Amino acid sequence: MPVSLHRRSRRFTAVGVFAVLALAGVLRFWALGRPGSLVFDEIYYVRDAITQLAHGFPTVWPDDDTLMGLPFTDEPSFAVHPPLGKWVIALGLAVFGDGTGWGWRAGGALVGVATVGLTMVLAWRVSRSTAVSLIAGLVLAVDGVHVVLSRVGLLDGVLTFFVVAGALCMWRDHEWVVDRRAFSRLGPPVLWARPWLIAAAALFGAAAAVKWSGLYPLAAFLLLTAARDTIVRVVAAREARRTLGLTVDLSRHRHASTAVALSRSALQAVATGLIALPTALVVYVTSWAGWICTAGGWGRADGPWPLALWQYHVDMFAWHSTLSAPHPYQAHPLTWPLGLRPTAMYRETLETGLTSVVSPLPNLIVTWGGVAALALLAWWVCRALIHPARIVRHRQLAGAGAYAAAFVVVGYLSGWLPWVLTLSRSAVFQFYAVVLTPFSAIALALVIGVICRRRGTRDEVSGRRIAVGIFLAGAVLLAVLFFPVWAGVPVPEWFWRWHLWLPGWA
């Protein structure tokens, strides 16, 4: 590539990244202090963050008033989620104080913008396409669920950040293994030196330290990694036989080499778990340092801290496993991908007659387009499984190959399927699906990238690109139209009602 063209390309990339992050920042920080009272479950997490910042552990508030003027007590509170997400909320409180919504929402908004940036990086790594990267970032920037969960002091937006960061490191581990041909010609019996795997495990441990559901993607990506390692070794064994000309007794050599590859893959899977799981555990336990290093936390005095912490977790698990109280906005996980039952987090009729609403209504172009793209990627993966070698060849990855598609689909399913299979809790909500939004955005960007790269006449290519431009412009336009009801902007009642497009949105 000529130097001038390369510089122009880098300039275009820099401007595109800045524009996407600026849009994400505006949608997440504009009028962040509105409303000035706690909304939905902020009443739990923000108060935990304030008292945790003061004591190192959550303490009890005198009542459930949604205003912030009441003093908290020194009595320990039974918090049912780990502390890391509340420490992120506390960062904003440390800067802006607890007298304004900026204080308890700034940390989440900053993490939300950072998630858009990480999503662009991950999209670029799986596709090596600047256009795919920018489209993924743009789509996530205007996703209604992600915008709202970045604008409220809840834990799920923070969870999403750590999940995407962990997924990015998992992909870097994949690149590290493939680029170094670590498993070529059967490779070493066990590969222990995997720095990106350690980083990924640490980040997924941090995700679990926000909400326990952060363990789901760790388990899913470890299984995917073990499957990938197995395929790499088996394919390498076959290529080694072909290179060495092992054709005299083909059946004997085939079984022997495949058996060796499978046995080493099993050992590698064990080694991968021994690398990742203790790392995640250490990070998770470290997140409890405030509770461990003080004497007044809930259950802290019940024996040595390891036993007390274990008992605390037994009590937390019992609470979550028996939570079955009905809620007017509970949404079955099967409805999450299409956004059929959003959670109305706040609604107030003001003295002016206007209505202020905060509701994570989905951007349907983004949400439904993402589901269609994920279905297409899943079909692509199933087709590629007929020829496993295609999954691992590096050249195939350069255009969003089969493993890239599998990686994105697994990322999405890891945040959704466990909830579908959870029968012990009925009180689950649509906004839990925010952890799915980065993978949905990448899937949509990958499919759009394939559409734009398909060969055809000049008119056909131009027509497809115009259609993609209209599609993305429509997504941005919907974000502009829905932003008032994502951000609590006072609007006429009819304007709010006009946004209730589906029966479950009312």
From TrEMBL:
Keyword set includes Cell membrane: yes
Protein O-mannosyl-transferase C-terminal four TM domain boundaries: 309-505
Pathway(s) where this gene product acts: Protein modification; protein glycosylation
Membrane-spanning parts: 12-31, 102-124, 131-148, 154-171, 191-210, 216-236, 274-298, 365-386, 398-419, 431-453, 465-487
Enzyme Commission number(s): 2.4.1.-
Domain named ArnT-like N-terminal: residues: 21-233
Pfam families: PMT, PMT_4TMC
Lineage top rank: taxon: Bacteria
Main location: membrane
UniProt subcellular location: Cell membrane; Endomembrane system
Residues making up the signal peptide according to the UniProt record: none
Residue stretches in coiled coil: none
Keywords tagged on the record: Cell membrane, Glycosyltransferase, Membrane, Transferase, Transmembrane, Transmembrane helix
Record carries keyword Transmembrane helix: yes
Topology in the lipid bilayer: Multi-pass membrane protein
Function: Protein O-mannosyltransferase that catalyzes the transfer of a single mannose residue from a polyprenol phospho-mannosyl lipidic donor to the hydroxyl group of selected serine and threonine residues in acceptor proteins.
Family: Belongs to the glycosyltransferase 39 family.
Stored PANTHER family: DOLICHYL-PHOSPHATE-MANNOSE--PROTEIN MANNOSYLTRANSFERASE (PTHR10050), PROTEIN O-MANNOSYL-TRANSFERASE 2 (PTHR10050:SF46)
Protein name: Polyprenol-phosphate-mannose--protein mannosyltransferase
Biological source species: Leucobacter albus
